[in-house]
Amino acid sequence: MRQLEKIAEEIRKCGRCGLSKTRRNPVPGEGNPDSTLVFIGEAPGYWEDVKGKPFVGAAGRLLDEILEKVGIKRKDVFITNVLKCRPPRNRDPRPEEVRVCTPFLDRQLKVIKPRIIMTLGRHSTAYIFSKMNMKFYGITRVHGQIYEAESLGWKCYVIPTFHPAAALYNVNLRDDLLKDLLKMKSILETSEKT
Ligand code: URA
Hints:
6-stranded mixed β-sheet, Uracil-DNA Glycosylase, subunit E, 13% strand, 9 helices, binds uracil, 49% helix, alpha/beta
């Protein structure tokens, strides 16, 4: 817990990139430091920037709904993002921002050492795949697949899925998102017993 709080403090003081000048509040991430499950989104949006918390806007409400459907409590998991500060007008993260910001994510993951990492959308999936030395062919091709990863430094499963924001605009993706989370839950339950 202390280690995660220390990382969060560093994030709050961070000035490594230009986003530190436009953000209102950095969003280090939050949740159970002992969680076996970590969700990684892209970057804070408008409401996350206002509140300093991850996934508290419309996409977050959809994520909460799906978590409830699969019987997972938000307080039991850890939720964070690739970028800790909001890009202006929610533009895509720039490679340089990803480069300077992701050491924070890497450290968070190393402290938590989750059994399952669920990446939400293409940006977090592309980043985690790059850490696993895997080519990323797009979220549509890889969502719902289960990848065993050891190259992060401990043994875990990486399960990519769609970003909840995408599912807000494309109703069909909500079913996929739900199915992927159900699959993840079954892995979580079986791997808990071993
Ligand atoms: N979208 C993200 O990727 N992360 C958030 O925290 C909110 C919206």
